[in-house]
Structure formats: structure tokens, C-alpha cells
Amino acid sequence: MLYAEATAAPTIKKAYVWSPIQSKSAHEIKYWTMRIKVLKSVPVHPAVLAAIHSKSGLPATTSKSMPMATLVNNLHQAKA
After folding, report:
1. Residues 58 and 31 sit within 8 Å (Cβ to Cβ)
2. How far apart are the C-alpha atoms of 79 and 67, rounded to whole Å?
3. Is a pLDDT exceeding 70 seen at residue 29?
4. Within a 13 Å sphere around the CA of 47, how many CA atoms are in the beta-carbon half?
5. pTM of the complete model
6. What is the Rg, in whole angstroms, of the alpha carbon atoms belonging to the chain?
């Protein structure tokens, strides 16, 4: 009986539906975290970094080199 109920029951999507604002914020945090990794000489593929940058909606000037203090400040602002 339980098997029949489980197979006949409607499936529920397990994925969490993100709003555009939450998605943009998450991509911003990911972008600044990856930029800090690049500055620390951790290998990050440039195509991945460029894709996250485009999804985050940040201006093109943010892809220029910045000091560590600026990157950390931007990360804190994105998390706030």
C-alpha cells in the first residue's frame, strides 16, 4: 500500500527556487571569493571567473586588478 501511494503521489521539486535578487547576490559573493583566490595564486579558470562576473551583474571595471583590502571590502559589502 505504501509503495502504491508513493508512486501515485505527485512529485515535489527539491530545487529551491531563487529570486533574481538572491541569485545576483549569490553570484556576487562567489565572484569576490574567486577574485581573492586568484590574488592568493589559487588556480581559477578565467572562463569560470568571466561567467560568474557576467551573472553577477557587476560593472566591467570590477574585473581590473585590485588590492586585497578592496576585494575583502567588496566581499563584505556583498554579504551584507
Report:
1. yes
2. 19
3. yes
4. 0
5. 0.73
6. 19
- Sequence letter at residue 32: W
The three cell numbers locating residue 10: 505527485
Please give the biggest Cα pair distance in the chain. Answer: 64
Contact by Cβ (8 Å): 24, 57 = yes
The identity of residue 65, as a single letter, is S
Tell me, letter by letter, the H, E, C secondary structure of the chain.
CHHHHHHHCCCCCCCCCCCHHHHHHHHHHHHHHHHHHHHCCCCCCHHHHHHHHHHHCCCHHHHCCCCHHHHHHHHHHHHC
**Quick one: cell of 14?**
527539491
The confidence band for 13, taking pLDDT boundaries of 50, 70 and 90, is low
**How far apart (Å, rounded) are the C-alpha atoms in residues 1 and 74?**
56
